[in-house]
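[job 4471] stage=fold_predict status=RUNNING
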Amino acid sequence: MIRYARQDKYDIAYLLSSDTDLVPVVEEAQTLGKKVQYAGIPKGQSYGLTKAADDVRLIRPEDIELFLGKREGTHIRKANSKK
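[job 4471] inference complete, writing structure tokens
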């Protein structure tokens, strides 16, 4: 993310991770004039990334099913549901 920010290869970075170790990377990209959008899941949301990012999107299982479409014989199990 930092390398491409320095090379001015993007304007907005989309970070799909909940690894709080990436907060310094987000902050460095921002100092280079880039916007960072953090996408995570509610159950594993990184509050460090939430605070550092310019925008936050939390993805729910229903969102994934809408995007991928419900397929026969498949189901995305909610984190707190039982098998």
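[job 4471] summary: Helices lie at 2-6, 23-31, 47-52, 61-68.
[job 4471] exit 0
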